[in-house]
Amino acid sequence: MKALTVVMALAPLLWSGPTYGQKSTRATSAPDRSLVLGVWRAELDGLPAVALVITDEGGGLSGAALFYLHMRKTANDPYTATPHLPEPLLNPRFDGKTLTFEISHRRAHPPGSLSDPPMTFTLTLTGPNQAELVNRSEKGGPAATLTRSDE
Known about the structure:
This protein is mainly beta. The N and C termini lie far apart (76 Å). Strand 6 (90-94) and strand 7 (98-103) form a beta hairpin. The chain has one helix spanning 2-16; strands spanning 38-44, 47-55, 62-71, 80-83, 87-88, 90-94, 98-103, 119-127, 130-135, 143-149.
């Protein structure tokens, strides 16, 4: 009986002992998503290159990307920008500085791209209303500087 009393008295200490001094496993506060929400645009040689729309409607981050194809009819003609079809952002995640997301590549260059896996992008905040967009699926690919606008 004495042994049972000792075990009962020590049980709370044994329960809390292994966690004493360890970091809390509670989730930290969520990053301020308003830093990345809005319409982000980049230009190349004075023509639109990409537009991202990022929202948090419905509780989670969502949005779409619109890429522009730059081409000219002949070597002497000026470049024109033609928008491609908008693609939804897949699996967007924001850590407070960088938004990581994927975009389907299936419709990029059909029929050759129909079985392509999604491409991974990062949008890293570099200043107020400024960010850098990088296609992580292309090694050594160029980064685009985007500016957030009100429209």
